[in-house]
Amino acid sequence: MGRYRQTDSEPIGSFQIHYRGGLASDGILEAESFSRSLLGASKLYNSLVHYAETGTILRGNTSRRFTIYARAARLGRSVDQEWVVMPLVAAYAGDPKLYNDLIITTLKALAVFVTSWWSRPGARERELQIFANSINDMHRTSLDALTRMATERERTMRHLIRERREVSGRMLESAPNLAETSAPPLRELIQPIGESCDAVVQFPEDENEIVLREDEAEEIRDGVAELTELRRFRLLDISRLNKRTGSCTVLVDELGRRVWGTILDRSLSLPDNEYTRAMNLALELDVLAQATMRNGRVSKLYIREVVKS
Fold first, then answer.
1. Do 157 and 233 belong to one domain?
2. Most exposed among 54, 77, 187, 197, judged by the fewest C-beta atoms under 10 Å?
3. pLDDT in the model for residue 2
């Protein structure tokens, strides 16, 4: 008879992955690639929840406080797979909900970071800064709350506060190492893209939603592509612009074809910026950008700023 580890605790949180488009629209995914995707997701999220708890990279049979379980998928206009985070040991004294919410929030921030590290190689410096700001903000908020509670449960709470400060410091120091070790399971997670679905969506309809389509999947599968020096490009057209992520497609004059683009210019967040104006009014735009090269061809532009006339 099989043996498994059992806990009487309730899940501390849950989230989903959606597989959209292609055969997934009919509730079908190619079996081998889907099984690899589930295995990759399991490895990735177990690694991330351990890192969220300890600030250290999971290796081998390291002792863990939490583990990831999969719930049965529900079929609709996409194939939806739910994941739950289960505690393996008793909750901390004090306010376990506050602590558990911190773990889930950190897990999602880590998933955004490691996915962006590989899907947007031209923006790694910015993604690392965004991650650092996110970790600092969420831990500052949680630690302030824990500190207010410390007067009632002095010893336990003060130990927890000190531990979380240490974890935050380790995270900020070793985040790039985490991203490197996360590459293999992330590549497994996106296996169905291009085979039986058009996109894989982590944390759908959440503020941390991560949408991976074929262009991002190509970046992740191939590893770091050659990144050119910053130079000038003329864009004849911008389309499919997402103001939140900067993702778009651009028709590049010298290439005579469309490629994917990511706009890293902070001005994109402004209401009336030059990028949305160019898209809405079909205007040409000169920009400074770096390009990723694959097999001697430009595959994507990382757009830094508009060149003024």
1. no
2. 77
3. 35
Least confident of 22-36, 58-72, 246-260: 58-72
Q: How far apart are CA 169 and CA 161, in angstroms?
A: 13
pLDDT at 146 over 70: no
Residue 4 has pLDDT above 60, yes or no: no
Q: Which of 198, 231, 199 is nearest to 298 (CA)?
A: 231
- Residue 34 token pair: 């889907």
Residue 2 lies in a domain: no
CB 53 within 8 Å of CB 166: no
Amino acid at 131: F
The answer as to whether 90 is a domain residue is: yes
Short-list 66, 54, 55, 56, CA closest to 91: 66
Mutual angle of helices 96-119 and 31-54, in 10-degree steps:
120
pLDDT, tens digit, for every residue of 197-222? 999 999 998 989 999 988 888 888 87
Phi, psi (deg, nearest 5) at residue 223: 75, -160
> Residues 6 or more apart from 91 whose CB is under 8 A from it?
9, 99, 100
Domain of residue 273: give its range: 225-306
pLDDT of residue 88: 72
The residues near 230 (Cβ < 8 Å, ≥ 6 apart) are 288, 289, 290, 304
Tokens 């469309």 sit on residue: 258
Checking if the pLDDT of 1 tops 50, the result is no
Q: At residue 5, what is the residue type?
A: R
